[in-house]
Specification:
The protein contains one helix and eight strands. The chain is mostly beta strands and about 150 residues long. Strands 1, 2, 3, 4, 5, 6, 7 and 8 form an eight-stranded antiparallel sheet that branches. Strand 5 and strand 6 (about 110-125) form a beta hairpin. The two termini are about 25 Å apart.
Length: about 150
């Protein structure tokens, strides 16, 4: 079969519960309307006099991040947040080695997860106007290598 486009809405995101390592909690698809995966790099200048005025460099380090944007979900009766969003928001306030947890995602038809075993989280702005739902966003920044894991 030929390759084809696929729906962004069919990507599933999960956060590892830092209080129960190995337990993965979904971030509700009702909370997400956009995701963006980004990459960056660090380079070193290797230009010498022999480079004859032409810049030379090498890639020395790569980084990856993924941003989720959408809506903040909460139970109107209890005030409890979506369980995945609650873990994300709690991780935002942790420091040092405790600021790292697992994050993974996959398309619904994938047989494996893309896993960032060590990920730090930065919450984005939340808010809205008179006729808006409350917005929510978070950036997940990988620390270390990406891995994969089989989906059950």
């Amino acid at each position: 079969m030929a390759v084809q486009k696929y729906n962004a809405r069919d990507i599933v995101f999960q956060i590892e519960n830092y209080a129960s390592p190995g337990t993965w909690v979904p971030i509700s698809p009702l909370a997400i309307n956009t995701f963006t995966k980004s990459e960056d790099e660090e380079t070193t200048d290797t230009t010498t006099f022999g480079s004859a005025g032409q810049a030379e460099s090498m890639k020395m380090q790569i980084g990856k991040s993924l941003q989720l944007e959408g809506f903040r979900l909460r139970d109107p009766a209890t005030g409890a947040l979506d369980p995945g969003q609650a873990i994300v928001e709690a991780m935002n306030d942790r420091l040092g080695v405790q600021s790292l947890t697992g994050f993974r995602w996959a398309h619904t038809t994938d047989t494996t997860w893309t896993v960032w075993a060590q990920t730090r989280i930065t919450l984005g702005d939340q808010g809205g106007g008179n006729n808006d739902e409350v917005s929510w966003s978070a950036t997940f920044t990988r620390s270390g290598l990406s891995t994969t894991a089989a989906k059950p």
